[in-house]
Amino acid sequence: MQAIQKSNCYHDQGHKATCGYESTRYMVIFGLIQVIVSQIPDFPNMKWLSVVAAVMSFTYAIIGSALGLAKVIENGEIKGSITGLPSSTAAEKVWLVAQALGNIAFAFPFSLIFLEVQVLQFGFLH
């Protein structure tokens, strides 16, 4: 919420504006939600929780795709290229490519963990 407020402030007043917001309120609300949710018995073993998480994940993906498509339609063209960010030297380009591959390699195991959680949660393949 704080990031959204800052973003709105920067759009309204420019990036040089001092857009500071107190985060204590959001931390207290988050803590209260955590206390309430922690009182639910056997919370990690609920199958509906995985279904809700999967639906939310697909919803976020659809929203992101729709916003991207809306921006392409608004601009009338796709801004970007297959070559990625421009760089001044070949060494910098190699470094950017290596960073991208590292990010992909770092993120890959999480997809396997997600599948393992689904298998354990729903009892698939047993």
Automatic annotation (TrEMBL):
InterPro entries: AA_transpt_TM. Pfam families: Aa_trans. Keywords: Amino-acid transport, Membrane, Transmembrane, Transmembrane helix, Transport. It comes from the Eukaryota. The chain crosses the membrane at residues 48-73, 94-115. Its main location: membrane. Residues 1-118 form the Amino acid transporter transmembrane domain. GO terms for biological process: amino acid transport. The keyword Transmembrane helix applies. It is found in: Membrane. GO terms for cellular component: membrane. This is Amino acid transporter.
